[in-house]
Design a protein that fits this description.
Strand content: 5-15%
Structural class: alpha/beta
Number of helices: 13
Oligomer: single chain
Distance between the termini: 32 Å
Strand order of the largest sheet: 4-5-6-7-8-9
Helix content: 40-55%
Radius of gyration: 18 Å
């Protein structure tokens, strides 16, 4: 594992070797201070949705975290937020819109929850410039096919705005996690631009199947192939060939700052797959640059 003190050197060398202008990280968390504090407290308690000891590697204030991320050479990133109850998403969207306005390298992020007025604040977020939405099926504890979300999914399909969705059953299964609800959603909205968080951990093969069937389905690498995840949910080596064939739809994600290891390990874990420099260039920069129209 790359040590924290060596991350900047390692990542600078990585970008130089691959001739990359930077790294695009599609899975980072910036939240209102009080919300982030509650998230960290939940991780500290090893709550049931975490299921194991999970120390936070980058427990710093917002400006320090931004400086750290930029120091790693991250050129664009997200501010993923997610409601766990009604009457929360619209307020989070106001915060993320303000954060994006004062943080030009952040992709304007928004979220939603199954509630009667969800379509109105999703429409408002799109009009305000939201470039990606985050949905957390496990934390929100809702079925992605909830009828209250029908107008939202239709709106997002028409807009072509990507939705990064935590829907796999890791690190702990939920009532509505797994590939089946997503397969049903895509049958109804086949043009959705979905980014499956964590490669769908641990249902890797099933979510790769969906990516092969639906051209709008992408997957992010968040925490996959790291020592931490390989210990409990190893990625099947038999699927490495599909990582090559889907190389244009895999995006780098880290889960910064809520990771229990150094940031550089997220990249070194990809390098040790030995899928080649071209694959790494696509995953760490080019695919996201194309999806989010980053010059």
């Amino acid at each position: 594992m790359i040590g924290d003190s060596d991350d900047n050197t390692y990542l600078t060398d990585f970008r130089t070797r691959l001739d990359l202008p930077g790294i695009i990280d599609v899975h980072t968390h910036f939240m209102p201070e009080q919300v982030m504090a509650k998230v960290w407290a939940y991780f500290d308690s090893a709550g049931p949705l975490v299921g194991r000891e999970w120390p936070i590697a980058y427990r710093d204030d917002e400006q320090v975290r931004l400086k750290t991320l930029r120091g790693f050479g991250v050129r664009a990133f997200t501010s993923l937020v997610y409601p766990h109850k009604p009457d929360m998403a619209a307020w989070l969207n106001e915060w993320t819109a303000d954060f994006a306005e004062r943080t030009p390298d952040c992709l304007h992020t928004a979220t939603f929850y199954p509630e009667h007025y969800a379509d109105s604040y999703v429409e408002a977020a799109i009009e305000r410039g939201a470039r990606v939405f985050k949905v957390h099926v496990q934390v929100g504890d809702f079925h992605p096919g909830d009828p209250l979300l029908n107008p939202v999914w239709g709106m997002l399909e028409d807009a072509g705005t990507p939705v990064l969705i935590h829907c796999g059953s890791g690190p702990a299964p939920g009532e509505y996690t797994g590939p089946e609800p997503i397969a049903g959603l895509l049958q109804r909205y086949p043009r959705l631009q979905l980014i499956i968080a964590h490669m769908g951990t641990p249902e890797y093969s099933e979510f790769l199947d969906l990516a092969e069937e639906y051209p709008g389905v992408h997957l992010d690498t968040t925490m996959v192939w790291t020592d931490f995840t390989e210990a409990t949910a190893p990625f099947p080596t038999a699927e490495h060939s599909r990582l090559r064939s889907l190389s244009d739809r895999i995006l780098f994600g880290s889960d910064f700052p809520n990771i229990p290891y150094s940031y550089g390990h997220s990249i070194s874990a990809l390098e040790r797959l030995e899928l080649g420099d071209s694959w790494l260039r696509q995953v760490c920069y080019r695919n996201a640059a194309r999806l989010f129209e980053i010059a």
